[in-house]
Amino acid sequence: MSSREGGQGRGGAGHTARSLLSTPVNSRPSRLHIAEPLPRTINTTTHQNTTQHFNNHSTNNHNTRPTYNHTKNTTFRIQLRKINPNITTDKQKIFETTVKDLDVPLTKLTENNSGYYAITDEAAAVDKLTSSKATELFKKINLRPIIPPDIRAKKTIFIRQLDSSIGKLTPEEIAREIKTQQPWAKILEVTKIKNYTHVIKVTFSEISITQKNPPKRPPFNTKITPSQIELEKYTYIQICYKCYKFEDHAIYQCTSTTPSCSECASHQHTNNATLPLKNV
């Protein structure tokens, strides 16, 4: 086909398309069908009839068991570690402490080498199990609650762009000032980032505290804006604590027969206490 013929072909195709578009819909070829847009309204009559039929069926058929939408519940696991590893705490004492004193009914309590795992299906129960009150109660029965890293991250904020006069203070002085100005803000820990004076890390006892707006009367008489506050982010990394591979498998799936060093993954030793001295 010559270039001239090709141009006619293309021009002919364009002419045909323009003809179709300029032709009324009813007179276009049957193979070219343009559907009209569907209405955006709902047929309320059909919906009402369907609903009425369902209600009549549910009312008349008394022998039919009702169906429910079963959703998978989220579980939260809090470790209760033994303070004295030689003393074992009775399970009933733990249940009694969680229910009577903390108002947290546990769904399950499993034992492990270092203590127990308290399992609950309520997010609010996590705050109660890791509160300062719970810490004191569990201490009486030789246990210490350990906050999971993902839950701890939700209780922790970074405050940036602080004045250097604040950053130079000790964590105890910063925590004392926050508690004085905001008594409702129960602090678990204040952490300073290296030698930086413009940023601090504050961990509270409850998740709800980190979700509140900055106080109108800020500590140290300095204004703190929402842009200065950042919630800590937690990223889970799978680690095999036998061969120390990352993002590959769990320890119960490990096929390695040789223990590895947790510091350098060497097979010649198993801990940093036996690392060979380096020549400097």
List key phrases describing it.
single chain; alpha+beta; 4-stranded antiparallel beta sheet; 8 strands
Radius of gyration: 33 Å
Going by helix content, strand content and strand pairing, the class is alpha+beta
Helical stretch count? 9
Low-confidence stretches: 1-23, 25-72
**Fraction of residues in H or I helices:** 25-40%
Strand content: 5-15%
Please tell me about this protein's structure:
The chain is α+β, with helices and mostly antiparallel strands and 280 residues long. It is built from nine helices and eight strands. It has helices at residues 3-22, 44-60, 91-101, 123-129, 132-140, 149-154, 164-167, 171-181, 207-210, and strands at 76-82, 108-112, 115-120, 143-146, 156-159, 187-192, 200-204, 229-231. The strands form two sheets. A four-stranded antiparallel sheet has the order 2-3-1-4. Strands 6-7-5-8 form a four-stranded antiparallel sheet. Strand 6 (187-192) and strand 7 (200-204) form a beta hairpin. The longest helix is centred in the N-terminal third of the chain and has 20 residues, at 3-22.
